[in-house]
Design a protein that fits this description.
Blueprint lengths: L5 E6 L3 E3 L18 H10 L5 E6 L2 E6 L1 H12 L11 E7 L6 H10 L6 H13 L5 H8 L3 H11 L3 H8 L5 H6 L6 H12 L7 H9 L3 E2 L3 H12 L4 E2 L8 E2 L2 H23 L3 E4 L12 E2 L3 E2 L4 H21 L6 H22 E2 L2 H6 E8 L2 E9 L32 H21 L1 H17 L29 H11 L12 H9 L3 H15 L12 H10 L11 H4 L4 H11 L3 H7 L4 H13 L7 H9 L27 H5 L1
Parallel strand pairs: 2-4, 3-5, 9-13
Antiparallel strand pairs: 1-5, 3-4, 6-8, 7-8, 10-14, 11-12, 13-14
Organism: Sagittula marina
InterPro entries: Chromosome_partition/occlusion, HTH_ParB/Spo0J, ParB/Sulfiredoxin_sf, ParB_N
Protein name: ParB family chromosome partitioning protein
């Protein structure tokens, strides 16, 4: 690439830095210690690679080779170095003044030299599009990388300069800086940055993303794609990104207006198709508000010959699918696909054997809402003023004590679920220990001293004194609640790791570690101990009475570090979920209403309920939701023998529970 540039020699004193050099915003690159080896090499061997320069205001500006230029200036300043003065000439290559690829040339040169600061790369790629008019495809081809990699860097190069500066100064982490790329408007980024840091708050990538969500909807999101055509037709403001898929629809109110209109149209279409009396729409289906609504259900009908033939085909296919789902080697994706197919077939079979009565159709309706990135229909709902009051009204939920009330049966926990909950509890305990470093330090030092000086059995089996990070085994690690992981990550970000420099000798690392303040050491020890700690629930209480007591002290409420989510509820039987809702949480009406829903709908309800308890809950219900967890996850008040896992094959449940 440089062979077409004219060679020339230039005095070192006539060389200046070029503003387009991609390292120009990273002065630490030119610190004497970072170029010491380069200075020594040039002193002995001379300049092996010419500098790339461009004529600028009568001087020769170094477009590529800034570190070599810095080393040359160091040699001039070093009186011990021989043969280097301001008049010493060095080999260069001249880039024409009219060249429009200056950033690309500088970046290409620097990529082959010392590793660049990550932010330098982000800014360089962005500048190549803005200034040089290049595309992600041409940039990728120039540097032998993928288009996807270039696109990723482009987003981060367009983050507000103040935020990039904070990342350079290590005030925020690189991951936190990247989170601001969720919104292409630098003004929106700056406002969120200032709001989250005005009281000296600690920034995390998660909180940044949450704050930016209120500033609009990305066009590539399910919702953005759903409303975009109508939004743009009405002149809605769009914050354009260099890359189309990251542009944002900024007018959240207009987005919601259009969404409601489209949901209303979907509800009306369903009303006409099914024959209901009314239709309505709501952006987010409010289960608490809908608790006052009744619901009607289709009753059994005699299928005709054609319908019966299809029912027989469905029955045969369901039997085949059930055998496939019992394969223990089945991948999660394949299992979920089979699960969805079974749900669809069962729904089709119900439709062929059930129908709403004329009376129910005359008073019931359908509501459309936006859930899981798609339009969701809630059918058979009866408004409070239309609810039938008579006892035993056919198909009506106005009789919560009638035959359609669920019989949830007894909840039993399979051994596999118990083992996974054990892992989740250990992770929550680790988060709590990391958040209480002084107590954890006391525990660690007490164990170390006691195990070494005392005779007999170790004071606890839960802490591994060999200081190896404990492997957290879990069947569905990527689906668990991430609260404890985020808390531990935040604790890690607060650690002083300046002493842990791989370039230092161990003795120097130890000296730096000893110089840390006591509080910083406590945080380090707490984090390390938390990472090596096992869960002690379901162990012998006598052998681990210490850890049980310690858990209660630092983690009296496991819900501060762990929240039940859809991944957990998916592993419960439908009857268990209804029992938990009706008995444990005091949501009896909701349990009755959901009894005829699919398990997937009940799981979604539970997930939403625990993620953000509904505003209309009573104080008692809210307290129950805030405190609930499986008995074996509780840290206080439950003996170990109460949390023993049961066999994988529990006793048969009631007829209703089995049907659920």
């Amino acid at each position: 690439m440089t062979t077409s540039f004219a060679p020339l020699t230039v005095a070192i004193g006539d060389l200046v830095a070029h503003p387009a050099n991609v390292r120009s915003n990273a002065p630490e690159t030119y610190d004497p210690e970072n170029i010491a080896h380069l200075k020594a090499s040039i002193s002995v061997l001379g300049l092996l690679q010419p500098l790339l320069v461009q004529k600028l205001d009568g001087k020769y500006a170094v477009l590529a080779g800034g570190r070599r230029h810095a080393a040359l200036k160091e040699l001039i300043a070093d009186k011990a170095a021989k043969g280097f003065t301001a008049k010493t000439k060095v080999d260069c290559r001249l880039v024409p003044e009219e060249s429009d690829v200056t950033t690309a040339l500088s970046l290409a040169e620097n990529i082959t030299q010392a590793p660049m600061n990550a932010i330098d790369e982000f800014e360089a790629f962005a500048r190549m599009m803005e200034v040089d008019g290049q595309t992600p495809e041409t940039i990728a081809k120039t540097f032998g990388t993928t288009v996807a990699a270039v696109k990723g860097r482009l987003r981060y190069g367009l983050i507000h300069p103040d935020i990039r500066a904070a990342a350079r100064a290590k005030v925020i982490t690189l991951d936190t800086m990247k989170a601001f790329a969720e919104h292409p408007s630098q003004e929106a980024q700056r406002e969120v940055f200032e709001a989250l840091t005005k009281d000296g708050g600690y920034l995390q990538a998660y909180t940044v993303r949450q704050a930016l969500k209120s500033r609009g909807v990305q066009v590539s999101d399910d919702l953005g794609a759903f409303v975009r055509a109508d939004y743009e037709a009405r002149g809605g403001a769009v914050a354009a990104d260099l890359l189309e898929e990251h542009s944002v629809l900024e007018d959240a109110a207009l987005v919601e207006t259009i969404l409601l209109e489209k949901l209303g149209a979907a509800a009306e279409e369903a009303r006409m198709r099914l024959g209901f009396a009314w239709a309505d729409a709501m952006v987010r289906y409010d289960y608490a508000t809908m608790a006052d609504y009744g619901r009607v259900y289709p009753g059994p009908i005699e299928p005709d010959e054609t319908a019966q033939k299809r029912i027989d085909e469905i029955t045969a296919e369901l039997e085949k699918l059930q055998l496939e789902m019992e394969d223990e080697d089945l991948e999660d994706g394949a299992y979920n696909a089979l699960y969805d197919r079974v749900d669809a077939l069962e729904e089709e079979a119900r439709d062929l054997q059930e129908a709403y009565s004329a009376e129910d159709l005359a008073r019931a309706g359908v509501i459309a809402s936006w859930q899981g990135g798609q339009v969701t229909l809630h059918v058979g709902l009866v408004r409070p003023e239309d609810t039938v009051k008579e006892e035993g009204a056919r198909g009506s939920s106005a009789n919560p004590t009638g035959e359609e009330a669920p019989d949830p049966g007894e909840i039993t926990y399979p051994a596999s679920l118990a083992e996974d909950l054990k892992t989740e509890r250990a992770m929550a305990l680790g988060a709590a220990m990391a958040l209480y470093p002084e107590a954890t330090l006391d525990m660690t030092l007490f164990k170390l001293v006691s195990d070494v000086l005392a005779s007999g059995m170790s004071v606890t089996q839960a802490i591994k004194i060999d200081a190896r990070k404990e492997y957290r085994n879990h069947a569905k690690m990527d689906e668990i609640d991430e609260t404890s992981l985020e808390q531990v990550a935040a604790a890690h970000d607060m650690l002083d790791l300046s002493w842990l420099d791989d370039s230092r000798r161990p003795a120097d690392q130890f000296a730096a570690f000893r110089a840390l303040e006591a509080g910083e050491k406590a945080k380090l020890v707490a984090y390390a101990t938390a990472s090596t700690t096992q869960s002690c629930f379901a162990r012998d209480r006598q052998r681990d009475s210490l850890m049980h007591a310690f858990e209660i002290e630092i983690m009296p409420d496991i819900r501060a570090h762990w929240t039940p989510n859809a991944a957990l509820f998916n592993r419960f039987k439908k009857a268990w979920l209804l029992k938990i809702l009706g008995e444990d949480l005091g949501l009896a009406q909701e349990a009755v209403t959901l009894a005829s829903s699919s398990k997937k709908e009940i799981v979604a309800f539970c997930d939403k309920l625990f993620a953000e308890p509904f505003a209309t809950l009573t104080d008692t219900q809210r307290a129950a939701v805030a405190a609930w967890c499986p008995p074996m996850m509780q840290t206080a008040g439950v003996a170990c023998d109460e949390a023993e896992p049961t066999a994988e094959n529990p006793e048969p449940e009631s007829e209703v529970a089995q049907a659920a």
